[in-house]
Fold this protein.
Amino acid sequence: MKYDILIKNGAIFDGSGKEALTSSLAVKNGKICKIGNDIFDKEASTVIDAKGKYVTPGFIDINNSADHYLGIINNSGCWNLISQGITTIIMGHCGASLAPLIKGNLNFLNHWSSDINFNVNWDYVDEYLAYLQSLKPGVNVGTLIGWNTIRENTVGKEFKPLTDEELRSCLFLLKKSLQDGGLGVSFGLAYPNQKVVGSKEIIEAIKIVKKYDGLVSFHLRNESENILEAVEEVIEIAKNTKANIEIVHLKAYGQDNWSLYPMVLAKIQEANESFHTNINFDIYPYELTAESLFLLLPEWLTIGDENALRRNLENKDVRKNLLKILKEKKKLYENMFFVSSASDFMFGGKTLKQIAKEFNLSLEETLLKIIFLKPKELIVYNLAVSIENIIYSLKSPYCIVSSNSTSHNPDTIYSDRFIHPRAFGTFPKLFKNYVKDQPILSFALAIHKCTGLPAKKLGLKKKGIIKLENDADIVIWDPETIEDMSSDKNPSINPKGIETVIINGKISFNKGQVVNQGLGKILTLF
């Protein structure tokens, strides 16, 4: 038998958390078919000498936003993700997925993107996944089902608890979506149109998901001063349902709230160890965050639709109270700057202080003016996470590393659109900053948090671990040169150290170049 690829002399980390074994492995028909030192060059069509390099499973990005920003459609090649070693992405978080779309529009995405003007040619999840496969994605793709997507396709944007009949309709649509290929359900409890979602809806949805062994993803209801209450809400749900739960991009937002974070992690650990819950969380290892501005505003202001928001801003008494609250929370926003995926956004790339100077207004008045002018997509960057809390996270056995980014083709990035550096450098940054520079983790454990652990969480039995008959998603990289080269000023720069990326048994990326496109497959639970 002639092997397709032989990788020899590499230090193989299998993704389980075990230390490396120097050996060789062979790939045939998309699978890992042999591991050992008795494989010879003449037995393979392609031979890669990985001496001095690490051979690991492809990185599984458990929290990716390529659907929210429509990157998976506009840049399905996912070049920036492949160049940092990502071979699998999971989308559909924060209550929003691109299917099902019974009403045929993507207006619920306006918290992330205003660039949603294209014809949707699918209704249900199976049709959507078939469409994604037709795009020939560069990486493997799976999706959760956004509860808000289901909700809006059932009752529209009406801000109210569901009636029993409406809830039954939502649950029926969720069940069909899981049968069609969804990997679970997600909730974005912090977003204005999802704050009304209560425990009854959540628990009933989880009952459906558990029948399919799916994942339940939560964006916490609050990530700042009320983060303890928000994580306790999820823990209580986990205790009552024993669901498989992922808390996405966990963080304590803002310097005044950093001291709460160790208590958050302690609560998760206690729940898992004392009450046998199954809670994990993911982080991206950056101090710089990318958030919807609405997540930083008082909850009462953002409840409801765009018209309700405008009415609040036009009410003199409401406005006076709001300005007082914003002054007290100045540390949350005083150093942020605005970004946008829309090329016509007038404030993109400017700090709040710069805009305030142009308007000759206070920071608080400027914020309200911007919101009134642009009440939909308002994405801001902010240095809002502490390095100490990133370290606390990485030390937790329940932490998974993700990029929470979208897909880009560097050749088509517009200069007036802004990109978080995590879109190009998340996983190299983890290894350089938190394994090499600061020995927070061993390489074996850091690799586990990017491969075997997310695969287990997602129930992907053939991915995330290097072993016989598993899918040949493999990254070969140099531990001496691995480094994230992106920054907030120059984000679209490929990292150093990633040498070869193999996806489903074929070489996708080699020595800085994408050499084969469209190698990804659609992932489902069946």
Q: What stands out?
A: The two ends are 30 Å apart (CA to CA). The mean pLDDT is 91. The chain has three domains: 1-57+461-481+493-515, 59-287+385-420, 293-382. The longest helix spans residues 164-179.
